[in-house]
Design brief:
One of its GO terms (biological process) is CAAX-box protein maturation. It is built from 13 helices and three strands; from the N terminus they run αααααβαααααββααα. The protein is mostly helical.
Length: 311
């Protein structure tokens, strides 16, 4: 089973603490190109250094900003590979899925399902409240965005999934020897990692509910499906299609998208609705398609370390 693949007597929790530090260092190294760009613009071109995250997001041309932000995830993913391979003596497959190979049909099913939903819901919002949007489409910048987004956004989302639903999920399983604690902890940490996003500052900490709920949803489908394929597909569609369709002055990604949301953001039903309605519907769809069973055991059961060590 997926979460048990990282649980053994040699894989102590302290290794995950060291591994996490290495992954964070790799992430910082990946931010060097962004830092060099900032230094060039401020010291050579004489621009004022951005005073905060919002100013940072508008400092460069949007496609350049997106590229510089996303390139750091390439370094982070490399860091994850080395930590998994050489510190934990595992394969990347073992932190991806319990299957003999990655099931790409699962990835693309989750990707297409959420991509279609995102496109349809965005068009509904646009036609229902056209005054809240302006057409932002510019052919050449959008084409560049498509290339950058298609190449790097799946790396960004996959990196986050490997950290939370793969690496840390198995790490907390080593610590707690059960499944509910890794599910809860990775969801809360996932939510906390997004608290610095511009939309949180704009709409308040209630957005934390959405991020924790999303982390919980991704964790549930990973545990129930015994692998990350569905989570990888969902997350990639969420960020890629979102970046191509809609941007705003307060969103995490500033992009040359098709639409720009100019409405005043409010944290209301649109924040809570995905968590309490849409995600349960997706869980139902996935569970029927992949014939999930044993929900209580897979989400809250104990891990039998003796049985694992005998395998």
């Amino acid at each position: 089973m997926f979460i048990e693949q990282g649980v053994n007597s040699e894989n102590k929790f302290w290794k995950y603490l060291i591994g996490s530090v290495v992954i964070i260092i790799a992430s910082f190294i990946g931010q060097v190109p962004l830092l060099l760009g900032l230094l060039y613009e401020t010291m050579i071109e004489g621009k004022a250094y951005p005073s905060g995250n919002d100013a940072m997001m508008h400092f460069f041309e949007p496609n350049l900003t997106l590229f510089l932000i996303l390139i750091s995830f390439v370094f982070t993913l490399i860091g994850i590979y080395f930590v998994v391979r050489y510190l934990h003596k595992q394969t990347m497959l073992s932190v991806t899925t319990s299957r003999k190979k990655i099931d790409w049909s699962r990835f693309f099913f989750a990707f297409s399902t959420w991509a279609i939903f995102t496109i349809v819901s965005t068009l509904i919002f646009y036609f229902a409240s056209p005054g809240d949007f302006v057409i932002n489409f510019k052919p050449v910048p959008f084409a560049i965005l498509v290339v950058i987004g298609t190449l790097l956004i799946p790396i960004q989302t996959s990196t986050e999934e490997y950290v939370f639903r793969g690496y840390l999920m198995q790490g907390f399983a080593n610590l707690a020897k059960n499944k509910w604690f890794p599910l809860l902890m990775t969801s809360v940490i996932f939510g906390g990692m997004h608290l610095s996003n511009p939309e949180v500052l704009k709409m308040g900490n209630i957005v934390f509910v959405y991020y924790v709920g999303t982390g919980l949803f991704l964790g549930i489908i990973t545990l129930m499906d015994e692998g990350m394929e569905l989570a990888l597909g969902f997350h990639a569609a969420n960020n890629l299609v979102g970046a191509l369709l809609v941007t705003s002055d307060w969103s995490a990604f500033q992009t040359h998208s098709i639409f720009k949301d100019i409405s005043e953001p409010e944290a209301g039903l649109d924040v809570i609705l995905p968590v309490i309605v849409i995600y349960p519907i997706l869980l139902f769809i996935f569970s029927r398609k992949y014939q999930w069973s044993g929900w209580k055991e897979k989400l809250t059961g104990k891990i039998n370390t003796q049985e694992i060590n005998n395998i």
